[in-house]
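Researcher: For the record, we're logging two predictions in this thread. I'll number them. Prediction 1 follows.
Model: Prediction 1, sequence and structure:
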Amino acid sequence: MNLSDETALVEAIVFLENEPVELKTLVGVSGLSREVVLRALAEIKDRYDQSEHGLELVHIGDGYQFQPKQYLWDALKSRYGKRNDSRLSRAAMETLSIIAYSQPITRVEIENLRGVAADGMIKLLVSRNLIREVGKKDAPGRPVQYGTTKEFLKLFRLSSISDLPKLDETEEDRFRLNG
């Protein structure tokens, strides 16, 4: 198999997957080495970054997926958006932001930062698979801690949580947990 065949194989695998496909899966399914798969992914990304393509190869969490280019999404989302991808309320976005920037975080810590009860928002965000339980805090009662999911990364087109926009000093104070 030559390089263009290897690249075509990796491209076809990514295309056929419904969810972001991890590097180890691409290696396993294709039978190619990790280095060859990484080279193929770089070539695919370069090719799809050209202006004549409506898709791009995005790195989401630990996986790769084709998605429409960001500038096309407004024209496409009414028909191709997820059924349950209705807009989040301001309160849900605020809660999600607190979790994203402060994770792992408990319900009580979220409530202290927001100043209001968070049970309903936490249930909503869990039901949308945007947050999940990530552990228990080593504190009295061992409260559940929450963090974001791969679905969160996908929704906001992030490779990892470190790709979140940086906060200015005032915003950092807003998300800082006291004690």
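Researcher: Logged. Prediction 2.
Model: Prediction 2, sequence and structure:
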Amino acid sequence: MMKALITGASSGIGRDFARILSKRGYDLILVARSVKPMEELKKELNTKVDIISMDLSDIENAKKLYNQVKNENIDILINDAGFGLIGSFRKTDLDKELSMIDLNIKSLHILTKLFLSDFLKKDSGYILNVASASAFTPGPLMATYYSTKVYVYHLTLAIYEELKKMKSNVHISCLCPGPVDTNFNNVANCEFKIKALSSNYVANYAIDKMFKNKLVIIPGLKMKLVYIFERFVPTKLKLNITYNIQYRKQN
């Protein structure tokens, strides 16, 4: 039986990843801090579901998670856990930012590295790292969050090229959505001013593209145009545009 591990599985895109993969016949290991939403999700799924309550902003837990499931013969790793924070860099809470770096970067890095090693041994498997369209540009007023997603984006691209040169059958992809209608807004204390895509649409699109070995997955025409547009915009103009977008998002 095929099996997938999904972090950040208690809500939003992570929850929809679980629904989609279960419909495709995958057994699941769901990981998040909140148990109750995962238990509710488990009731509606038809495949075998194991729930692990774990705070991956503690990077030691990322290592513990791997050691707990390394013998489960996992076929897909989806690194979806993460959060954001809006506000001027001089005012945002340092401890919260360091926690964000630990979750968005360090735990993702640990899980990617450890599971990649296992996937390479059997020469099969998929890794989907969830970044953001914010990976394409600096992010004044969300400086730390944008920076974490740049790391995820570049790490994934670099690993992709290494796998390609090896002619490996292990595949890695990076999901870079724009605004998605999830609980992210509440955690980051911001409000999107443009229409957000549904998490179900984004998750379906991402899974389809992942299985087609797409490297950079960008749901929605608007974000695809942004991806192209930003390549031709001078850095200082890009910074000004991004600042104004983030300023309007603040509650």
